[in-house]
Amino acid sequence: MTNGSNKEGIKITLEDLANIAVPDLQPAPIPTVPGGAKSYGTVTEAAEQGPVLPEERGSIFLQGWFYLGIAGILGALAGWAIAEPGFVDGPHAQGWGDILMLPLIITLMSFGFAIAESTVERSVKKAALRGILSLPLGLVLGFCFSFGANMIYAIGIRICIELGATTERNPALWLARGIAWMVFGAAGGLVYGIVGQSSKKGKYGVLGGIIGAGIGGIVFNPIAMVTHGGAVSRAVGFALVGVATGVGMGLVESALKDRWLYVTAGPLAGKQFILYKNRTAIGSRQESDIYLFKDPSILPEHAVIEISGARVQIRATGNVSFSGHSIHTRVLQDGDLLQVGRYCFRYKEKHRA
Questions:
Q1: For the segment 173-189, what is each residue's pLDDT rounded down to a tens digit?
Q2: For residues 245 and 257, what is the distance between their CA atoms, to the nearest angstrom?
Q3: pLDDT category, 48, cuts 50, 70, 90?
Q4: Radius of gyration of the chain (CA)
Q5: In terms of C-beta density within 10 A (0-12 exposed, 13-18 middle, 19 or more buried), how is residue 231 classed?
Q6: Closest to 212 in 3D by CA, of 93, 76, 100, 321
Q7: Does residue 351 or residue 157 have the better pLDDT?
Q8: 35-49, 184-198, 238-252, 306-320 — which is least confidently predicted?
Q9: I need a surface site. Which of 38, 91, 192, 262 has the fewest CB within 10 A?
């Protein structure tokens, strides 16, 4: 073979081609994932992985039904203990304790519900502000709702007697007391919503309080029969009303929530923050809606979660990480994991058909 010029070209013979060794190339194995499916990766795979954050086990003390139940029982027992020395047994006898016992129980239960959440969140200032607001509210509502409950109870008893229920062993009388005492739970739930500055929180609190106090009122008479009446039966009965009201409020609030942040790591691991407001502030100020303590890297207002219709967006002033990358704004989606200092939050929302 020549190149058509005067210069000598490169000559390749068949013998030269036969002596060339071709390396044995094997195709690289395609990685698989559990279940046998092949994984081909994505162009954003490195960005999506991010650091793996360990999820801590939450404490029962941070569950709403638990701390509201404790607040209810302590408030009810405190009201009973103050008024019991002035209580006079008997159908026609009446001491100052008879007049003040129910309003005091409602007032102090409302006070307990108002400060419970802020207390477990270590926000002393917010607990103090809510407690101060709840006392006059609880006292006014306590007298008003106590009067209403007594009227409902008197009407219920009259109906039961006309239907032939004449002894306290008749469940119809238990039901009459339970219906009347639903008013107590409604008062506690209403104060809970007012100090929390949320109508939805108040609505859930009223519903849960009605259910819990109703159950407590129904079992009050059986407790009185077992303990043979008197101070012990009132203490046990009102304590049960208090704990049932608080637990009912916590369970209803948790069951009906639609958007919330669940703390997966940090000092508040296991706590859920239900997003009631259109604007939820997160920061190191104790007055923040979500108060984050024991972390000097968190700013007084570190981030804000804004709700507009179905859109939930976080705006960060300080450092907030999503999938290992710092973000300034992000529209949140169910399951998003956010890191703020030593705290980790998983955003959750309830899917509706």
A1: 999 999 999 998 999 99
A2: 18
A3: very low
A4: 33
A5: middle
A6: 76
A7: 157
A8: 35-49
A9: 91
For the record, the structure tokens of 115 come out as 């400060």
Q: Which CA distances in Å does 79 have to 87, 185, 244, 270?
A: 12, 15, 16, 31
- What's residue 18's pLDDT? 53
**Cα torsion through 248, 251, 256, 259, rounded to 10:** 140
| CA 345, chain centre distance (Å) | 13
- Cα separation, 173 vs 69, in Å, equals 26
Residue 232 is predicted with a pLDDT of: 87
Q: CA geometry: angle at 117 spanning 126 and 178, to 5°?
A: 125
**Cα–Cα distance, 144 to 122 (Å, whole number):** 33
> Residue 163's CB: how many other CB atoms inside 10 A?
10
Place of tokens 């409950």: 149
What does residue 318 show for φ and ψ, rounded to 5 degrees? -95, -165
- Here the tokens at position 14 are 């068949």
Nearest to 245 by CA among 281, 222, 220, 280: 220
